[in-house]
Amino acid sequence: MKKNLHQSLIVPLLSLFILVLLLTCEPGRENNHAASADPLSSWNDGPAKQAILEFVSGAIDSTGEGFIPVNERIAVFDNDGTLWSEQPMYFQMMFTLDRVIALAPEHPEWKEQQPFKAVLEHDMNSLMASGLEGLAALSMATHAGMTSDEFGIIVSEWIDTARHLKKGMLYREMVFQPMLELLDHLRANGFRTWIISGGGMEFMRPWTEEVYGIPPEQVVGSSIKMAFEMTDTGPVILRLPEIDFINDKEGKPVGIEKFIGRKPVAAFGNSDGDLQMLQWTEAGGPGRLMAYIHHTDAEREWAYDRESHIGRLDKGLDEALAKGWLVVDMKADWKVIYPTAP
């Protein structure tokens, strides 16, 4: 009797098992364990979220026109203003100013030497009046003259302790939760995520893997020249006071070609400095995703675009609207801005 009962249960249970297996392994689609959950839970339902989900869904569907082979699934992201905030000035600039103050006791001449004098006296007008030449002088004085390992330690200590003057948050906390979810969703579906930033490459590499999940070898940015040297304690890479490469505007496609060697299939930026990167991505052919993060939330973050001195979005916004690129409205499309509320 028991034997017959067991036998009678085997067939329906086996059929149920086969049905579940078929449903979870749909032909032509990669098995994504997170498919049942909402991978973009910090995004409001709307055209922006839908466009991203449809792009990723199409990219992994080998039976559809939007399919993208795994080796071509390269997504690039600007950093400042796209993955974290950038107001009232780029965070690397805040790092530079902090370094000037920290190094000032070793350089008494800075008390009378511009633009260092302006930094020590908190005279932002004089600092801005020094222009690019003055900012370059600050960068060379604070970013060079040490080994790459020493610089990495300095950056790591700063990113773990420095706080934004207005928000009171650690700078590393001022990353965008919706973008963290997007990075995770892309990687869960076979995409490689790269940072393509105008910021310093060596400034970002010590912390991007921990904060974004993006390893240092997938971070491309502006850089200074470096040189190998054998010392009494072993080999080192010295950071020299000379610009090597500016990875901004027209430099971004060059950086992509130099370090990646493939056109991206998705690109995310927030300013005119990212326009050429999005244009280069679009040049790869149909089925690509070009997106701008539009800062529209003055209450939770900042609202700025065409007239801003930091992260200006003017020509890029016009081109995005004309070409139908995705424009993400931070106020309307994001439920939250930061992983933790300021």
**Residue share in β-strands:** 15-25%
Mean pLDDT reading: 91
Structural class: alpha/beta
Rounded to an integer, what's the Rg over CA atoms? 24 Å
- Kindly state the percentage of residues in helix: 40-55%
For the largest sheet, list the strands in their spatial order: 4-3-2-1-5-6-7
Describe this structure in words.
The chain is α/β, with parallel strands linked by helices and 342 residues long. Helix content is 40%, strand content 15%. It has helices spanning 2-24, 47-59, 91-103, 116-120, 124-129, 131-143, 148-161, 177-188, 201-204, 208-212, 251-259, 275-282, 315-323, 330-333, and strands at 74-77, 192-200, 219-231, 234-245, 266-269, 289-294, 326-329. Strands 4-3-2-1-5-6-7 form a seven-stranded mixed beta sheet, with helices on both faces. Helix 13 links the parallel strand 6 and strand 7. Helix 3 (91-103) crosses helix 6 (131-143). It is globular. Mean pLDDT is 91; it is low at 1-35.
